[in-house]
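REQUEST FORM: STRUCTURE PREDICTION
Request ID: SP-0412
Submitted by: Lab K.M.
Chain count: 1
Length (residues): 519
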Amino acid sequence: MKIRELEIKNFGKLHEKKVVPGEGVHLIYGENESGKTTLHTFIRAMLFGLERGRGRAALNDTFSRYEPWENPNYYAGAMTFECGGKTFRLERNFDKYSKKAVLFCEDDGEELSVEDGDLEMILMGLTASNYEDTLFIGQLHAKTSQALASELKNYATNYYVAGDSELDLAGALDRLRTKKKEVDREIREKLQEKQKKRERIEQEASYVWRDIHVLETELEDVKDELLKRREREQEKSKTENKGIIDELRPPKWRIHPIEILIIVAGIIAAFVLISRPWNFLLSIIIGLAGGIYIWNRLKDGKRKQKTEPEIMLEEISSEEELASIEKLTWEQEHLEGDLKEKRVQYDNLREELEDMNELGEDFAKYDRRRAALTLAEKRLEEISRDMRGQMSSDLNHLASEIISELTDGKYTRLYVDEELHMSVVTEGRRVPMEQVSQGTLEQIYFAFRMAVSSLLHEEEYPVILDDTFVFYDEPRLKRTLKWLADHKQQVIIFTCQKREEELLRELGIPYTKTEFISI
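STATUS: Completed
RESULT:
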């Protein structure tokens, strides 16, 4: 990719200004407050857009800082760039009320859509964070962000495993983990559903058991009452067979006079009609028997007065008593039928609970799916770890070549671990980056950024340096400028000093220049 033209229509302090970066090294010179940082911010905004923050964040965000000084409602610009052998023009309006982006190919006039990702496709996935960690180096900002570590890990897995950096195996690993979480969630939901069903069945079984207990109690009461009714019926049957005298006797009389006359007549008849001495004996026996009968009758007359319920029961007719017995019998049969049904229902519920204690086929399928996902995740992690090691070796090799050239062989090796902690080798001794000078540290980060850029980006992008060489002495800066001229097709250097231009002339490196005048 090469930037052919920057047209700042209205952006920050810049208004209706054009910059045409040339091939190779292009210097943008200007004193402080002349608009160099504004121009770089404009380049970034054209490539990746400019979003306004929300709430309090909007007060000091990039959108607000670079709102045009004049006519803030007209907040726009355009960029012409070459990528993939074609020339494109990108126009953006950053204004919050009329925000839009227009992208088209100048070679064939084809209109493209920024919203649909055509610009991202042209830039081959270059992101704002990746751009700031590799291609752009600001003053005192040579150190990369930790996000680059994740980007490198992802790239290593994708490219070295599949041979295609556009594949997203790290994303696949995330999807596997998401799938496993979904399976775990489904298992939890199934278990919760099963537990709710178990609790519902257990509650229903407790209700059925309570009904069984109530029915057993009611049935026992009916049986007892039926037994009493039948006994009472038998007693009434015996009462119906009482003698004629009992029927004739007035209710209030303890003994009827006729009964006394019959006893006396019996004694006299026995004494007169039976011969002696048997008549005396028989008369005595009849007299004793009559006395005992009269005594029992008199005693029976003194019985305790009956209660109202007993009187009511005695008043029940035999037909009513028989009907009550039949009703109790029917109730007993009905209760026995209900009790049998409840016991069968209770047994079925108990069997269902026992079946729920065993894991079904659904849970077996979930276990197999989870095991497969876990195995795939483990295998991808192993592959990713191995490939990161291979990528680390290639990255260290590229970075070592660059640092050796930048330091004229003083540092021959540059090592970078997965957490982006770096160390260099000099005279056979490994030195952590914390022990080197600030100038050397800046070169280490520069070498690392350029190595990462070569490794991550298939398309070569412009390198943008904003007062990057503050801590570089003259020999370091010479070697760095020479390396950039030899290895990069477009380098844009923002500077407020004259020494970059002087050294480029001294080295015979061709360059173009745009000068900003302080406002």
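NOTES: The radius of gyration is 56 Å.
Reviewed by: T.R.
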